[in-house]
Prior knowledge:
The protein is α+β, with helices and mostly antiparallel strands. The chain has two domains: 3-56 and 268-407, no CATH class; 63-263, no CATH class. It has twelve helices and twelve strands. Strands 4-5-10-7-9-8 form a six-stranded mixed beta barrel. A two-stranded antiparallel sheet has the order 2-3. Helix 8 crosses helix 10 (322-363) and helix 10 runs antiparallel to helix 11. It is elongated, with a radius of gyration of 35 Å. It starts with a helix and ends with a helix.
Amino acid sequence: MTIxxxxxxxxxxxxxxxxxxxxxLSTLGVVMGVAAMVSVLSMGDGVEAFARQQIEETTxxxxxxxxxxxxxxxxxxxxxxxxxxxxxxADAESLFAAVEGEAKVAMLTSGATxxxxxxxxxxxxxxxSGVLASHFAAAEMSFVAGGxxxxxxxxxxxxxxxxxxxxxxxxxxxxxxxxxSLALNGHTHRVVGVVKGGRSGGAPLAGFVPVDDAARAMPGxxxxxxxxxxxxxxxxxxxxxxxxxxxASRFGPKWKERVDVSTNQARVDQVATGMMVxxxxxxxxxxxxxxxxxxxxxxxxxxxxxxxxxEIGIRxxxxxxxxxxxxxxxxxxxxxxxxxxxxxxxxxxxxxxxTAWIMRLQTKAPIEAAVTPGTIVSVAALSIAIGLIFGLxxxxxxxxxxxxxxxxxx
Length: 410
């Protein structure tokens, strides 16, 4: 910075200090605009983080599902494919071998079946799933009795606690079902394990059988799906790509017509997109107040130019260039917006944290205001831009004054 520029900056700051009340009043619009914008963006970031947490708790974001397409779109109508793929345990093992990293592999098919406990009792409706033995570990299921079956086992079943209580005829001691036999779709199966969960009366009666035994245990079961579980979410995209490459090598260029490879990341992306639209909308609305603050700064600076016309003329007569006068008034404008932005950021953060506290009290939801560097930097940059844009016209008007006319100004 040149000596003349530093001198102009010093003169501008001294003029602000000489009129503290006017300086303070001119910053109010900026303070309110910045505070509104910071509070909205901080609460938006906090609500987005809460939504992400809820999705992660209720959705398996680490899973990659490889499912056969059982229907085809023909003339706008979805009809059942006669050549639909039916995955087997060998397909799951082949896919697992094709994917790098410590992924877990599971296989799942589901359906419903009638369960005959004895010849006298009425049959019960059980929801059944055909799974690999690794499914219980991949789904982090814990056993209250027994354990998982082997992939090569047949005529065995694992029940949830409510179903086990029905089989044992003792809802308080579901573990008694271990070792008992029941008829699934007319075929006898022995209970080898009871998994934790489903004790409440509203929970479904559910069980698990080896995937290769699904055809015997439940009629009309859905086509089996293969599920890969990545160790960390950063590996999901890579493993999905490897799974797609494996499907392409097996079923050719048109494999997407027969197989669907999907993840649940789309749900998180949808939330992020929705929150971004919300934040941009609210930022646009709150930005109006920041524009009003900029207009207020322009009015104050225009008044300052009118009051200090003789001073500007004297400075130009003693050697100050147009650029020096421009720097002087722009420095005043940027200083006002910078000062207002600093107060506004602090006020906005206070409002955001207070709002989050009230929301936690009212909803019991763990919502926190999120302070991100991006919010602070973007608001600070916008404030400086407002100062430069709305301070430019008064600064140009001052810089273009004729020294003679300015000195003679009354």
